[in-house]
Amino acid sequence: MRRLGAGARLVAPLLVGTVMATLIAAAALALQATLRRPTSADALALRVVSELQRIGSISSVESLSSIPSVRARCSSRGKRDTVILSDGSRLVIDPGGVRQKRGVWRRQVLVDAEARLAACPRLFVGDLSRRLFAGKRVIDGNLIFDGVPAYRVRVDSQPPTVFLIVSRRDLTPLAVRLRGGRGVRGASRLFDAG
Protein backbone atom coordinates (compact mmCIF):
# COMPACT_ATOMS: atom_id res chain seq x y z
CA MET A 1 0.00 0.00 0.00
CA ARG A 2 1.28 3.35 -0.92
CA ARG A 3 1.73 6.03 1.71
CA LEU A 4 0.11 9.41 1.22
CA GLY A 5 2.46 12.29 0.76
CA ALA A 6 2.67 15.17 3.22
CA GLY A 7 0.57 17.39 0.96
CA ALA A 8 -2.26 14.85 0.76
CA ARG A 9 -2.27 14.43 4.54
CA LEU A 10 -2.90 18.17 4.90
CA VAL A 11 -5.55 18.39 2.18
CA ALA A 12 -7.62 15.37 3.30
CA PRO A 13 -8.90 16.95 6.58
CA LEU A 14 -9.74 20.17 4.73
CA LEU A 15 -11.69 18.22 2.14
CA VAL A 16 -13.58 16.22 4.80
CA GLY A 17 -14.29 19.43 6.76
CA THR A 18 -15.62 21.19 3.68
CA VAL A 19 -17.91 18.26 2.84
CA MET A 20 -19.21 18.13 6.44
CA ALA A 21 -19.85 21.90 6.51
CA THR A 22 -21.73 21.64 3.21
CA LEU A 23 -23.90 18.80 4.55
CA ILE A 24 -24.69 20.72 7.76
CA ALA A 25 -25.58 23.86 5.77
CA ALA A 26 -27.85 21.83 3.47
CA ALA A 27 -29.59 20.25 6.48
CA ALA A 28 -30.09 23.68 8.09
CA LEU A 29 -31.50 25.09 4.86
CA ALA A 30 -33.89 22.15 4.54
CA LEU A 31 -35.07 22.63 8.14
CA GLN A 32 -35.58 26.35 7.65
CA ALA A 33 -37.58 25.73 4.48
CA THR A 34 -39.98 23.42 6.36
CA LEU A 35 -40.64 25.85 9.23
CA ARG A 36 -43.61 28.19 8.88
CA ARG A 37 -42.60 31.83 8.68
CA PRO A 38 -44.65 34.20 10.82
CA THR A 39 -47.01 36.39 8.84
CA SER A 40 -47.08 40.15 9.31
CA ALA A 41 -50.32 39.66 11.29
CA ASP A 42 -48.53 37.18 13.59
CA ALA A 43 -45.70 39.67 14.09
CA LEU A 44 -48.25 42.37 14.94
CA ALA A 45 -49.99 40.01 17.39
CA LEU A 46 -46.64 39.36 19.10
CA ARG A 47 -46.17 43.13 19.46
CA VAL A 48 -49.63 43.35 21.07
CA VAL A 49 -48.68 40.57 23.52
CA SER A 50 -45.45 42.41 24.31
CA GLU A 51 -47.35 45.65 24.99
CA LEU A 52 -49.84 43.83 27.24
CA GLN A 53 -47.01 42.32 29.27
CA ARG A 54 -45.76 45.83 30.07
CA ILE A 55 -49.05 46.92 31.66
CA GLY A 56 -48.90 47.19 35.43
CA SER A 57 -52.48 48.35 35.87
CA ILE A 58 -55.38 49.42 33.72
CA SER A 59 -58.78 50.97 34.49
CA SER A 60 -62.07 50.45 32.72
CA VAL A 61 -65.75 51.27 32.72
CA GLU A 62 -67.62 48.02 32.11
CA SER A 63 -71.14 47.38 30.98
CA LEU A 64 -72.25 43.78 31.11
CA SER A 65 -75.68 42.42 30.32
CA SER A 66 -77.86 41.93 33.39
CA ILE A 67 -75.75 43.95 35.83
CA PRO A 68 -75.24 47.72 36.27
CA SER A 69 -72.14 49.39 34.81
CA VAL A 70 -69.11 49.42 37.09
CA ARG A 71 -65.66 50.92 37.12
CA ALA A 72 -62.83 48.43 37.41
CA ARG A 73 -59.11 48.49 37.97
CA CYS A 74 -56.89 45.53 37.15
CA SER A 75 -53.42 45.45 38.72
CA SER A 76 -50.68 42.95 37.92
CA ARG A 77 -48.36 41.84 40.68
CA GLY A 78 -46.18 38.78 40.62
CA LYS A 79 -48.04 35.74 39.38
CA ARG A 80 -51.53 37.18 39.76
CA ASP A 81 -53.80 39.99 38.65
CA THR A 82 -56.36 41.59 40.95
CA VAL A 83 -59.52 43.34 39.76
CA ILE A 84 -61.24 45.75 42.13
CA LEU A 85 -64.74 46.77 41.03
CA SER A 86 -66.50 49.97 42.10
CA ASP A 87 -69.22 47.90 43.83
CA GLY A 88 -66.56 46.57 46.26
CA SER A 89 -66.09 43.19 44.60
CA ARG A 90 -62.59 41.79 44.19
CA LEU A 91 -61.55 39.23 41.59
CA VAL A 92 -58.24 37.35 41.55
CA ILE A 93 -56.67 35.93 38.39
CA ASP A 94 -53.83 33.45 38.80
CA PRO A 95 -52.68 30.26 37.07
CA GLY A 96 -55.66 28.49 38.67
CA GLY A 97 -58.18 30.74 36.90
CA VAL A 98 -60.50 33.59 37.88
CA ARG A 99 -62.05 33.63 41.36
CA GLN A 100 -64.25 36.09 43.19
CA LYS A 101 -62.73 36.93 46.60
CA ARG A 102 -65.08 39.61 47.87
CA GLY A 103 -68.45 41.20 47.07
CA VAL A 104 -71.96 40.17 46.10
CA TRP A 105 -71.95 36.61 44.77
CA ARG A 106 -72.07 36.30 40.95
CA ARG A 107 -72.31 33.32 38.64
CA GLN A 108 -68.87 32.20 37.45
CA VAL A 109 -69.71 33.12 33.83
CA LEU A 110 -70.21 36.75 34.98
CA VAL A 111 -67.02 36.71 37.07
CA ASP A 112 -65.05 35.51 34.03
CA ALA A 113 -66.69 38.15 31.81
CA GLU A 114 -65.92 40.97 34.27
CA ALA A 115 -62.27 39.91 34.49
CA ARG A 116 -61.98 39.96 30.70
CA LEU A 117 -63.75 43.32 30.40
CA ALA A 118 -61.23 44.70 32.93
CA ALA A 119 -58.54 43.81 30.32
CA CYS A 120 -56.34 41.96 32.76
CA PRO A 121 -53.01 41.41 31.03
CA ARG A 122 -52.52 37.88 32.45
CA LEU A 123 -55.74 36.63 30.84
CA PHE A 124 -55.13 38.31 27.49
CA VAL A 125 -51.47 37.32 27.19
CA GLY A 126 -52.35 33.69 27.94
CA ASP A 127 -55.29 33.59 25.54
CA LEU A 128 -53.43 35.38 22.72
CA SER A 129 -50.38 33.15 23.14
CA ARG A 130 -52.54 30.02 22.90
CA ARG A 131 -54.16 31.34 19.71
CA LEU A 132 -50.77 32.15 18.18
CA PHE A 133 -49.31 28.72 19.05
CA ALA A 134 -52.38 27.04 17.57
CA GLY A 135 -51.90 28.98 14.32
CA LYS A 136 -55.26 30.75 14.66
CA ARG A 137 -55.88 34.25 13.34
CA VAL A 138 -55.43 36.94 15.99
CA ILE A 139 -55.72 40.25 14.13
CA ASP A 140 -59.37 40.32 13.13
CA GLY A 141 -59.52 43.58 11.23
CA ASN A 142 -59.20 47.36 11.25
CA LEU A 143 -61.70 49.87 12.55
CA ILE A 144 -62.05 53.43 13.79
CA PHE A 145 -62.74 53.58 17.54
CA ASP A 146 -63.77 57.02 18.86
CA GLY A 147 -61.92 58.62 15.93
CA VAL A 148 -58.76 56.56 16.52
CA PRO A 149 -57.55 54.09 13.86
CA ALA A 150 -57.45 50.72 15.59
CA TYR A 151 -57.02 46.97 15.22
CA ARG A 152 -59.56 44.43 16.43
CA VAL A 153 -57.63 41.63 18.14
CA ARG A 154 -59.44 38.33 18.64
CA VAL A 155 -58.44 37.20 22.11
CA ASP A 156 -60.52 34.05 22.48
CA SER A 157 -62.94 32.22 20.24
CA GLN A 158 -64.53 29.91 22.77
CA PRO A 159 -67.49 31.38 24.55
CA PRO A 160 -67.10 34.08 25.47
CA THR A 161 -65.69 35.53 22.24
CA VAL A 162 -63.47 38.41 23.30
CA PHE A 163 -62.10 41.22 21.13
CA LEU A 164 -59.48 43.69 22.32
CA ILE A 165 -59.42 47.00 20.45
CA VAL A 166 -55.91 48.53 20.28
CA SER A 167 -54.62 51.75 18.74
CA ARG A 168 -52.84 51.21 15.41
CA ARG A 169 -50.29 53.90 16.27
CA ASP A 170 -48.87 52.50 19.52
CA LEU A 171 -50.99 49.38 20.30
CA THR A 172 -52.48 51.00 23.40
CA PRO A 173 -55.53 49.01 24.58
CA LEU A 174 -58.68 51.10 24.01
CA ALA A 175 -61.65 48.81 24.61
CA VAL A 176 -62.89 45.25 25.04
CA ARG A 177 -65.96 43.66 23.41
CA LEU A 178 -67.36 40.38 24.67
CA ARG A 179 -69.99 38.03 23.23
CA GLY A 180 -70.67 35.00 25.33
CA GLY A 181 -73.00 32.13 25.62
CA ARG A 182 -76.04 32.24 27.88
CA GLY A 183 -76.93 35.77 26.76
CA VAL A 184 -73.82 37.38 28.22
CA ARG A 185 -72.64 40.42 26.27
CA GLY A 186 -70.42 43.21 27.42
CA ALA A 187 -68.17 46.11 26.55
CA SER A 188 -65.61 48.21 28.35
CA ARG A 189 -63.72 51.40 27.67
CA LEU A 190 -60.10 51.26 28.88
CA PHE A 191 -58.02 53.97 30.51
CA ASP A 192 -54.43 54.18 31.67
CA ALA A 193 -54.43 53.61 35.40
CA GLY A 194 -50.91 55.00 35.81
Salient structural properties:
194 residues; alpha+beta; outer membrane lipoprotein receptor (LolB), chain A; ten-stranded antiparallel β-sheet; elongated
How would you describe the overall organization of this protein?
This protein has 194 residues and is of the alpha+beta class. It has two domains: 1-35; 40-192, outer membrane lipoprotein receptor (LolB), chain A (Clam). Helices cover 34% and strands 38% of the residues. It has a ten-stranded antiparallel sheet. Strand 2 and strand 3 form a beta hairpin. The longest helix has 29 residues, at 6-34. The termini are far apart.
Short description:
With 194 residues, the protein is of the alpha+beta class. It has helices at residues 6-34, 40-53, 108-117, 121-133, and strands spanning 57-64, 67-77, 80-85, 90-94, 97-102, 139-145, 148-156, 161-167, 173-179, 185-192. The chain has a ten-stranded antiparallel sheet.
Gyration radius over CA: 26 Å
Q: Major β-sheet, in short?
A: 10 strands, antiparallel
**Gap between N and C termini, in Å?**
83 Å
CATH architecture of the largest domain, by name, is Clam
> What coarse outline follows from CA principal-axis ratios?
elongated
Count of separate structural domains: 2
Listing every helix as H and every strand as E from the N terminus to the C terminus, the arrangement reads: HHEEEEEHHEEEEE
Low-confidence stretches: none
List the helices and strands and how they pair.
Layout: H1 6-34, H2 40-53, E1 57-64, E2 67-77, E3 80-85, E4 90-94, E5 97-102, H3 108-117, H4 121-133, E6 139-145, E7 148-156, E8 161-167, E9 173-179, E10 185-192
